[in-house]
Amino acid sequence: MIRNTELDWFKSSYSSGTDGNSCVEIAIAAAANTATVHVRDSKHTQGPRLALSPTTWAGFVSGVTELADHRGRTVEEGGGTAEG
């Protein structure tokens, strides 16, 4: 299991909603022939986390962007949130 201290967390560039509550942090863990994208809520750093393959992460980001575009908003404006 990867501990919090072993990952270099940073705020995702896709995390900038106007309400100040859209704070997603990610960390990339690379091993020999594989990588994992870890995702957490920056307000609850000890809470649940996701561990995704780079392909899955890219699909998620693409889906959120498409949803925001469909709603006529950018991701930065909160177009990818459930409340948006």
Order of helices and strands: EEEEH
> What's the total helix number?
1
> What structural category characterises the helix and strand content?
alpha+beta
Summarize the main sheet.
4 strands, antiparallel
Task: Provide the low-confidence segments as ranges.
Answer: 79-84
Question: Which properties best describe this structure?
Answer:
flat, alpha+beta, four-stranded antiparallel beta sheet, 84 residues
Written description of the protein model:
The protein is α+β, with helices and mostly antiparallel strands and 84 residues long. Strands 1-2-3-4 form a four-stranded antiparallel sheet. The C terminus is likely disordered.
Briefly characterize the structure.
The chain is of the alpha+beta class and 84 residues long.
Write the layout of secondary structure elements.
Layout: E1 10-11, E2 24-30, E3 35-41, E4 49-52, H1 54-70
